[in-house]
């Protein structure tokens, strides 16, 4: 498969260099992402990694000159849709990416794919677009929400925990998180709590965890509320007493830096980590560290992979913006993902491996996420069966 | 039983944080009649200033004056440059102006300090927990917050009830025009009150740093809760703000802690959890609606 | 300040002025989609559509806020419920189920709009009946409280997508029109906006409107004249809620999506900002405010990622120096009156 891909690549790159000369203007890629508000750093990482991939190829993707057009959706669905309309109709953009949050994706993605353009998601993958509403022009390179938490459940099972206390905010993604965890956790759930989306103080929850005294705590609190949760977990004296498993969104490299020692010993399951041992990742990490003076998050890895995926599609059509042909080329997933093995399932969401990470101190006493093993192999998602593509 | 006590303490601690924000807001509203949406931004300024000074100098003792000074300075600047021109205007103009200020503060902080949340550690002296009762140990830091909050409440009470400035403040809250007519330098008083409110918000931000996430937009998350406290307590009343904050803090914490458990006695586990969480989210709003319907001026109105 | 302007009738030397301005505006709005096509800027059409929808919502809010003196910080509740009515009816239509075992779903625009207005009106009746027992800041906060309760309710309703929201795959249908087409949908919204603004102008000019203005200036005086302020205010609040519901239903159709985002307090705030920016208590102010905010946001985000740092000062300048929003600014520019 790989060899064939290489040969194919070689042949097309020859063809393509000719095509690239013939083409005057670079191919525009529309990135609609969230840059303002508390979630702004997610969009920033996706954008910067995507840009990095373009720079590493000398202003090209898949040998085709490209131009990235970035706009801030401000985490407003209406704003995201408006930007998409303008990019589609005025600028004639055919390739889109960038959306971070599900509610923006819900309002924006259907418009893009219905207008016959390609959308490659570097993060948001709401379940209502993964099943019956799947679309030939819609690809996700990140993950389907459920699989994140299934990996955490499997991780807890592998680590031999028997009694779990689980918490997540009371909204759809939170409920999916708890049910995803329970699907793969083989022990008993001794306590289940929904927190609030706007909650910042978790003292009440800490008291309940302590009185339930479980083997392990699983929690899903992305971004800022995750930082608050972990700090208060430590301050409540639970850190080190009751181990915790989480999935990637509850602890990325940025929140790790903000949480500090309160994250020590945490078990994280993720599809990517900065220390994954494969050539693509090494190249990515070297370039990232050189270009930006901050840690790479898994959002960065997804932004980078989205760029590589689009590059593989452009290469497949030799730079021709024929969307059905781009779809076909992209579906082959003919690129070296920074997470290693990667392919698309029938609903064009990833089938990938999930790794167990642990927060440890490195040689210099700095906190880092270390990969310690594999949790799941070639893991797809539960919605693929409903998709008729 | 110890669990109930611990949850009550949690409620009090949360209430005290809300009080620090609400005290400033209620004074500013009561005396100047300004609806200051940007009050949460002052809280953010305090948190950022504290976090950055602590990180740069490694000294938490320096962080405290830095946070207070930064927030107070931001507050005074806000008053002198913008709000002073709007006292004579409609409330709604103030709403628009302070909304604009939120945008400026948030984007300014993003530009200066980036989008990544900051790290703040607990001072080593206050780390760890003490055993208050057998089986009930509680975080020293949270106890400190409660103590600081109650001290501030006591200090404010003395300031307002026992001093000349306090007399003007009280008079200003009830008979604004009369105070002005008596030839009091109302401009200076306004600036001072605004600075004091900002300072308290900065203190809240500083203390919240190690517990919560220091990030852009943190002020807006707590702003609405603060308004709820002000209205429940009675606009313009510091005593109302204190009791309102404690009531909101305790009710909110206890609903979260005990409602799902109670519901689980009567229905299936997962449904009870979801319903409990939904109801507890609405809890304080329900509380506010009921209070306002029964006592439209709030529980401790400053206007007789 | 603003009251004064209402008390002293503004001297109008030529009565044709406002009429002419309205005609020019109407003509411009009708020509806009064709001009946009001709200029090669077809995305202006959906942009204008969004501005029109927000203008309907803002104008409705203005009826309560500007003309009735009821500062509602909970209009997102009506806006959002209008959107959810469209979403839920569409969901039961595609699933071919009866809603609550009684009501069949539908995708007929006229039916969904009417249902949305009814639902929002009913909600406004309940919220208004309770909230109008208070006034001032208390009224602001109690309307916020009810809207927040509704927000948390929809966040936790899994059947309607919870936080992820509901996707409406196809826009509602209206006769044989292709509502998917931007220009067609623009004219649908323009028609709705025209009816709305005409209706509000009629209400404001009617006896009802006069009483409402009287109540805003002095409730006691009106009560002394034997008028029960509560009923008038409640009626205005319900009409205002229905208008916001209509806007919400159009927005759900425009976005083909509805989520709790539409019910959040920031949405109430945004609508309020539009009204104040345009000019409180003026007929066309909300239209100006909505258009200015939507256009500014779009233009500025396209220009720089730090758009808030530009938008903030612009808003500040408007508040500090126009004394009455964009409408007042325009009036002063056009004639120095």
What can you tell me about this protein's structure?
The complex is a heterotrimer of chains A (389), B (304) and C (337). By secondary structure, chain A is α/β, with parallel strands linked by helices. Chain A has helices at residues 2-22, 40-56, 77-89, 102-114, 145-158, 172-184, 203-212, 223-235, 253-259, 279-291, 298-316, 323-331; strands at residues 27-33, 60-61, 64-72, 95-97, 118-121, 138-140, 163-169, 188-195, 216-219, 244-247, 267-270, 342-344, 350-361, 367-379. In chain A, helix 9 (253-259) links the parallel strand 10 and strand 11. Chain B has one domain: ABC transporter involved in vitamin B12 uptake, BtuC, CATH 1.10.3470. Chain C is mainly alpha-helical. Chain C has helices spanning 2-7, 16-38, 44-67, 75-95, 109-131, 136-155, 182-205, 207-217, 219-224, 229-255, 265-278, 285-303, 307-322, 325-333; strands at residues 98-99, 103-104, 166-167, 257-258. In chain C, the strands form 2 sheets. A two-stranded antiparallel ribbon of chain C has the order 1-2. In chain C, helix 8 (207-217) crosses helix 10 (229-255). The radius of gyration of chain C is 20 Å and the shape is globular. Chains in contact: A-B, A-C, B-C. The interface between A and B is large, with 42 and 49 residues.
